Amino acid sequence: GAQILLECLKKEKVKAVFGYPGGSVLDIYNALFENNIKHVLVRHEQAAVHAAEGYARTTGKPGVVLVTSGPGMSNTTTGLLDALSDSIPVVCISGQVAKPLIGTSAFQECNAIGIARPVTKWCAQIQNSGEVESLVREAFRQASTGRPGPTLVDFPKDLQAAPTEQAQAVGTAPVETTLPTPPRASIDEAAQLIAKAKSPVFYGGGGLINSGDDACAAFTDLVHLTGAPCTLTLMGLGAFPGSDPQFIGMLGMHGTLEANLAMHEADLIVCVGARFDDRITGELSGFAPNAKKIHIDIDPACINKLVKVDVGLAGDCAPILRALLAHVESQPQQAGKLDDWWARVNVWRLSL
């Protein structure tokens, strides 16, 4: 079973694993050192998840964590919750006591799935060696597709050592994933709102970073085309050039005065890859009272969750932004339309 796991990691092109060894994962560690995958030893399992988060954000690939049972698994919860909150793909492999001992309060046993469920996007426990390949593959698929996030596979110790012929049967077919595509009518409606707005603000978040360079470039092109102010969340910093004159700084509780006042006074907010967090909105009843809102997000559940929007566009923000850019380009552009709006924004900029 442990060898199947390592074959799966190699198939996923995993180059590094962040972990801390223990008795319930010794068979996995033995298999790990027989394969060409780097192991990064940490001093605490929480640090393993945080390190894997950094790896994922740097490479764009899921960070992989390996921990033992009981306290090894339970120590990962802060890191897993952080990855869930920030939409960072992490795959955690936790050891577990042998199957006959599960539920007996055995040494270093814990209800890994019960603990992991509220802090992961998806989690599962392997019940037989024949499930290793399918569950590990699903863990990577869930971590990387849609809104990214952490997943956990709990691996009982006896199944790691169980003999099986499946180690050579790891499949090669890629997993196909279909993302939602917003209807053309919704794209048209959003483009019309942008064309009519006299005091718009673009509000970008970490979803732009997760989507990749093409999404950030499309977002930048759209902001430049409209000439509107642009603000970013902490997780979205870098999605739009910080030196650009249209950038008015980070918004929210720790953001700039001009970004927050612009959001409050806007007649249109175009939110891309952000979730209207309470650190951004403050009291919801008083948030952007005169603004129409467009929300682009890969997770349909995030749209209209906290703030009711006029147009919701669910899907990967890169193709949606490109489609929206084409529609806005086809609209007549009125020269100087935002001059009064920028005059107000620049007063706020100079007020400190």
Provide a concise account of the structure shown.
This protein is of the alpha/beta class and 352 residues long. The chain is built from 15 helices and 12 strands.
Architecture overview:
There is one protein chain. The chain is of the alpha/beta class. 39% of the residues lie in helices and 17% in strands. The chain contains 15 helices and twelve strands. The chain has helices at 2-11, 26-32, 45-59, 71-74, 77-85, 112-116, 132-144, 157-161, 184-196, 206-211, 213-226, 257-265, 278-281, 317-329, 339-350; strands at residues 16-20, 38-41, 63-67, 90-96, 122-125, 150-156, 200-204, 230-232, 247-250, 268-272, 292-297, 311-314. The strands form two sheets. It has a six-stranded parallel beta sheet with strand order 2-1-3-4-6-5, with helices on both faces. Strands 9-8-7-10-11-12 form a six-stranded parallel beta sheet, with helices on both faces. Strand 5 (122-125), helix 7 and strand 6 form a beta-alpha-beta unit. The N and C termini lie far apart (62 Å). The model is unreliable at 166-176 (pLDDT under 50).
- Would you report the number of β strands? 12
Proportion of helical residues: 25-40%
Structural class: alpha/beta
Biggest sheet: strands side by side, in what order?
2-1-3-4-6-5
Largest sheet: 6 strands, parallel
The low-confidence parts are 166-176
Number of helices: 15
Distance between the termini: 62 Å
The H/E string reads HEHEHEHHEHEHEHHEHHEEHEHEEHH
Mean pLDDT: 93
Radius of gyration, in angstroms, nearest whole number: 23 Å
* Strand residue percentage: 15-25%
* Coarse morphology: elongated
